[in-house]
Amino acid sequence: MEGRILIIGCGGVATVAAHKVCQHTDIFKEIKIASRTESKCKALADVLNKKYGTQVTTAQVDADSVEQLVALFSDYKPELVMNLALPYQDLTIMEACLQTGCNYLDTANYEPKDEAHFEYSWQWAYRERFEKAGLCAILGCGFDPGVTSIYTAYAAKHHFDEIQYLDIVDCNAGNHHKAFATNFNPEINIREITQKGLYWENGKYVETKPMEIHQPLNYPGIGPKESYLLHHEEIESLVINYPTIKRARFWMTFGEAYLKHLEVIQNIGMDRIDEVEYKAPLADGSGEAVVKIVPLQFLKAVLPNPQDLGENYDGETSIGCRIRGLRGGEEHTYYVYNNCSHQAAFEETGMQGVSYTTGVPACIGAQLFIQDIWNMPGVHNVEEFDPDPFMERLNEQGLPWH
Ligand code: NDP
C-alpha cells in the first residue's frame, strides 16, 4: 500500500488522530483532512505542516451526502477513510467507500439522527458487500469501543482459557473547571448517557432505568469514584465474539454536579431531539419568523466546545477491563488499564485526554491497516484482529497499559 489516507471530521478526536498520523510519515505518505467546515481543516493543516513538516491537504465535504463523498473519494483515491466525524455519518461513508473501492475505519457505531439509539446491526448489514468487494471495514477503533475490546482480545489470547465476567470501567477523574461541559460532542454524549442501562447476563440483555445501578469502584492512582452502569456498544460485539462470557457490564464515573445538570437538562426538555418551533425576531425588526430548532442541538451551541477544554484540564482518565474466568481449570482474574493525563495530552496535541484516548487508537488502527497487518475483507470489530501489535504500539505511542 502507498499510505494515502483521508480523515473525515475535524473535531477533537480527528485533531489528535491527525497529529499522530503526521508523527508517522514513514507509514502515511499522503494525508488529507476533509470536513463540513473546511476552514477548520485548513487551520489544523497549517499547524500540522509547520510542526511536522508534512504536506497535509484539505477538502470540504458534507458527509451526509453519498454523492459528495463519492466525488471526493474518486478524486483523491484514499486507501483508507478514517471516519472521525459523527456516528450519523457512518452509513453514508461506508456506502461511498463501497462505491469507490476504499477501506474504512471508525470509532463509534451508527446512530440515526432522529432516534437516540445505537447498535451494530446497521453496519454489520454491510458485511457481505465489503467482503465481496475485497474491502476492509474496521469498526470501533477508539478507546471504548476500541482499546477496551483489544484488551479483552489480548486477555483471551494470553491469560484465559475462558473469559466469564467482564467489567469495562471508564473513569474521568479530570477537572476542566467549568460548571458543566461534556468531553466529546455534547449531542452524542447526552444522547448516550440518558438512554436506559443495559448489560449482558446469562445469554440475554438486562435493561435498567438510566443510571439506576451504581457503586463506588476503585481506580488505580485515583481512588474510589461512583460508577454508573451504562449501555455501551462494545458489549454487543464482545459477547458474540467471546460466547463464554456470562456477564458483561460497562461502568462510567460521573460527578454529582454533572448529574444534577443532566437532570435539569432532562427536566426542562433540553435533551429533546425532535424539532420544536421557535419564534425568532427578524434582523430588520419587522416581525418574527417561525423557525424549527432541535433543543439538544441548540444546547450544544451554548455549551463549552469540548475542544476548548484542554488548556485548563487537570487530572487523568483511567479506563480498563476487569476480567474473571478460567485458566488451567482454576479461577483467574486480570485487570488491564491505561491512565491518561489531560495535561500531557494537551501539551502534545492541544486537545484533552478524552479526545486523545480516542484519536491515538484510531491512528494505530490505520497504521496496522496500511501496513497490511490488520486487513481482512469484510466488516470487523477490532477484537477480531490480532491484538498483539496494537498492544505494543499503545505502549510506544502515548497510551501505555498496565
Ligand atoms: P466533534 O463534534 O468535536 O467533531 C465532529 C467533527 O465532525 C466536526 O469537525 C464536524 O464538523 C464534523 N462533521 C459533523 N457532521 C459532518 C458532516 N455531515 N459532514 C462532514 N463533517 C461533519 O466530535 P469528537 O471529535 O468529539 O468525536 C468524533 C467521533 O468520535 C464521534 O463519532 C464520537 O462518537 C467518537 N468518539 C468515540 C470514542 C471512543 O472511545 N470510541 C470516545 C469519544 C468520541 P463541524 O466542525 O463543521 O461541526
Form type: globular
Q: Architecture of the largest domain in CATH?
A: 3-Layer(aba) Sandwich
The hetero molecules present are: NADPH dihydro-nicotinamide-adenine-dinucleotide phosphate
CATH fold topology of the largest domain: Rossmann fold
Number of helices: 14
Termini separation (Å)?
A: 33 Å
- CATH H-level name of the largest domain... which superfamily? NAD(P)-binding Rossmann-like Domain
Write a brief structural summary:
This protein has helices at residues 12-22, 38-52, 66-76, 90-100, 121-124, 127-133, 147-158, 186-193, 234-241, 256-267, 295-302, 342-349, 353-370, 387-396; strands spanning 4-8, 30-35, 57-60, 80-83, 103-106, 136-139, 162-172, 197-201, 204-208, 214-219, 223-230, 247-253, 276-281, 288-293, 316-327, 330-341, 378-381. With 402 residues, it is α/β, with parallel strands linked by helices. The chain binds NADPH dihydro-nicotinamide-adenine-dinucleotide phosphate.
